[in-house]
Amino acid sequence: MQAQPEHAGQRADRFLADAIGSLSRSRVKSLMETGWATRDGQPLTEPAEPVRPGSHYRLKVPPPIPAKPIAQDIPLEILFEDRHLIVINKPAGLVVHPAPGNADGTLVNALLAHAGEELEGIGGEARPGIVHRLDKDTSGVMVVAKTERAHHALSEAFATRDLSREYLALCWGLPSPAEGDIEGAIGRHPTDRKRMTVVTKGGKHALTHYWTERAFGTGAALLRLKLATGRTHQIRVHLSHIGHPLVGDPVYLRRIPSAASALSKTTKDTLLSFPRQALHAATLGFRHPVSGEALAFSAKLPEDLQMLLDGIQA
């Protein structure tokens, strides 16, 4: 819709709500803040921005999420399972929970099919208890609760960091020092609401420990990382912040890194064409929420990431 002179100075969210008619201003505001609005083709994420006469505004409304996810028979690699919990090796490409754009075909849908009759109920609803998430294109170890008791205990363990998690990541360049900490509060990017960034004001404290497992000259490095906090996109944001973004990251790798010049053309082209972020949740350790037994699980690198590393070595 195109703004007219009489709309000048109105809040953008009010203008869009009035023009659409079927959405409340609060709903429009929420959609804007999560990246569904544009002005003249550019992202519009500030609901209070004054309307500009002559500009074209567009608001895309995502499809609603089904109230109750359906059970779907999706293969899972199960590392451990009992009546209280299940540990899986999540493949890259599998979304954890239904959301706009991914209404089904998720880990939750798969778990409903696999263990639906065993789910005692979380919050009164027969569903798996998601206590942590991995991004769609991140692979590796995840634990999911099957009972309310396990859900409460595991949620507390993740909240208090009473567990151990390590990731493997292939980044551009060679971090210096080879082992260290990355510390910086993480919050929403001021202009791109779909991205997170290190911020100087606001945000949530975040700390990442890293070790260099293998260096490929100065062009790339395989890192082992351990999270002291658990913020959205934490590893991806922190590595990008120090100038060593993940290979293949579609959100935080904004241009060809200067470190690419240290690699052969073949290797550089191979890394640049890798279709997802090169990040894998390698290990997860925690105490069983009922027995108290110490449990530890690991998942080897997925085939695509292992082949990528082998190709760099060749």
From TrEMBL:
Determine if Kinase is one of this entry's keywords.
Answer: no
Q: What class does this enzyme belong to in the EC scheme?
A: isomerase
The entry's keywords: Isomerase, RNA-binding
Q: Which SUPFAM superfamilies match?
A: Alpha-L RNA-binding motif, Pseudouridine synthase
Catalytic residues at 135
**Top-level division of the source organism's lineage:** Bacteria
What Gene3D superfamilies has UniProt attached to this entry?
A: Pseudouridine synthase, RNA-binding S4 domain
Q: Name one GO biological process term.
A: enzyme-directed rRNA pseudouridine synthesis
Question: What reaction does this catalyse?
Answer: a uridine in RNA = a pseudouridine in RNA; uridine(1911/1915/1917) in 23S rRNA = pseudouridine(1911/1915/1917) in 23S rRNA
Q: Entry's InterPro entries?
A: PsdUridine_synth_cat_dom_sf (IPR020103), PsdUridine_synth_RluA-like_CS (IPR006224), PsdUridine_synth_RluC/D (IPR006225), PsdUridine_synth_RsuA/RluA (IPR006145), RluA_PseudoU_synthase (IPR050188), S4_RNA-bd_sf (IPR036986)
Tell me which EC number(s) this protein carries: 5.4.99.-
Which purpose does this protein serve, as stated in its record?
A: Responsible for synthesis of pseudouridine from uracil at positions 1911, 1915 and 1917 in 23S ribosomal RNA.
Question: What is the similarity comment for this entry?
Answer: Belongs to the pseudouridine synthase RluA family.
- Name listed for the protein in its UniProt record: Pseudouridine synthase
Please name the source species.
Answer: Rhodovarius crocodyli
